[in-house]
């Protein structure tokens, strides 16, 4: 039974996207001035289920190729024979149904956001499209669909009307997602002996990649400053929580000596600890506000 559970956890891979989903969901909730309550839990669970569908379906689509791969990391449980393809497809369908049901319980309009998330998961790995094998389209898919949709669902769960907060939230999330996907591609390429020809970062020069990262970082920072300091979607206490979490997660790595001539593929991209810092900082803020309100 334990091995069976481990196989399903390997299929779902929650640790790969837990903080990613939580960070962007909480940003949307915060921009809508939401609070910790039943809707908070429902929208986060709906987003987790939708992203879980994406990861499960990706493993189903990659299973035939992964069967002949000895270097696949993390290993595909379907290719290893731990879970059948039919069971994995059933798990994917269950995740999709749960996600849509939770979105429907929140607001029928959120079902449309859920369909966008699920459609991205299907198109990303479907053999007819395989978005993650098409240069630039993979980058656009991550930055325009997945993360912004998570923030949008968090926002609309508490604020049904479109406003300037949502606009600058969308811009900030898009630019941060572009940075995250580019750095993810760079890290992935360092781990491959044979690099795929359609990776976005291979189609432009290293200087252009660096320039794009700087531009996207500047645009994301500007959008964030407007969102958090001019529109004041977060209290100062929440900003302090996020900065403290970021310091705890980032400072040890900044002072850690790096003697490697080539950066290790195991080194985490910068956006990973930042996602954790935003998740933990906002979660502490929501829980603190909840406790103050009730006690």
Keywords:
10 helices; 295 residues; mainly alpha; single chain; Tetracycline Repressor, domain 2
Describe this structure in a few short sentences:
The protein has 295 residues and is mainly α. 71% of the residues lie in helices and 0% in strands.
User: Could you name the ranges where pLDDT drops below 50 across 5 or more consecutive residues?
Assistant: 193-199, 259-267
The figure for the number of domains is: 1
CATH T-level topology = Tetracycline Repressor, domain 2
Q: How much helix is in the residues? A: over 70%
What structural category characterises the helix and strand content?
mainly alpha
Structure, described:
This protein is mostly helical and about 300 residues long. The chain is built from 10 helices and no strands. The protein has a single domain, classed as UbiA prenyltransferase (Tetracycline Repressor, domain 2, Orthogonal Bundle), CATH 1.10.357.140. α3 runs parallel beside α5, α6 packs antiparallel against α7 and α7 packs antiparallel against α8.
